[in-house]
Specification:
419 residues; 17 helices; alpha/beta; six-stranded parallel sheet
Amino acid sequence: MTEKSKVVWILQTGEPLHIDSDGRRPMRAMNLANQLLNDGHKVVVWSSRFDHSTKAFRGEDESPLLPAGLEYRLISSTGYRRNLGPGRLIDHALMALNLWRELRRVAQTDYPNVVFVGYPPIEVAWVLTRWAKAKNIPTLLDIKDLWPEIFLSVGPDFLQPLVKLAFAPYFVMARATMKNATKITAMTTSVVSWAYKFARVSVPADTRFFPLAPFADEPEEVRDDNARIWAEQFRVGANKAITLLYVGNFTRTLNFSPLLDFLSIARKAELVVKLIICGGGDKKEEMCRLFEDWDEVMFPGWISRKQHIALAKQCDFALVPYHCSPDFEISIPNKVLDSLALGMPILTSLDGETRQLVESHDLGSFYVEGRDIYEFAVAQDSESLARMKNGARELYQSQYNGKTIYEDMATYLVSLEGV
């Protein structure tokens, strides 16, 4: 390490890690860590031994060769089977307790210069920001979800007072976490503003936001012949056809009901349609049942990044089919930015920030009903599709390029030392 090098801690759970061997695409923790390493800093990543995505524990022997200057410290917890339920809350509580125990053992000579804290979970973020503030170590709190406010959407309206009472400790911890942080950031300015308002703190003039942007794909990935051959099986031979693509987890946040209406309208109009739904998750069986009578729908399962790139090249639109909810409406899901990087026009049911981005840059359409999808899709020709595809790539390069964003984020994080 040089005199200008810093020791940076990153706390991030629920994401792929360098030590995972299944080739999942890097997200916030890995991308930020890689950039900090490129800048010559030492990085210590704190994360959960339990893998949120696979619902399995990372083994003790999972220690692939890591980049120089990178260290991992995994925190034990109970794990959980479902994303919603008391099991996850118990897991997070135990993880926070174990983090607190680990922090007590850290020698002063091993303290970091700055700390990046991924939020949620609330409990571990509360423990680390409280510890760092006591040690006069600056922290950057990165908000991804509106916890605990979003908890209040659980159950009918008449139970809201009881729900709020039950989650009162989480409100206390969350507000303390945001107040203890040196700075708060998020994927959009709206989320940053929500956090400071929730914490009852005025928004600082130098507040920054950093989208959850992907890195541009390398040329060799784009030209992968095996992925291209695999994707050919989904090609539609008809001249006038519409191909829609969704890639991601199957969760309760998705709303595919308008797609059923769209398929019905398209079939009556004798329009050739192909809906390709890639991925898996808690709602996989429910999703398959929803479309079991539709030959136009295909479920390839989980696909690799190379397959995603090849498939995107022969599809007309990327689907971002979420239910509208306060947390999603003030954020921009990574699927939107992935679609921009792939040069795909977007069809979305998500109002708010995502709708504004799509419509203001003429990159697709917002829909409420299946007829909205049909009317927009059939109105497009090869020229308009090409224009939207080029516009998506240009917007990604100018505003959502992962390389530029993480360079800025790493610089901003390290600059907090001494603030």
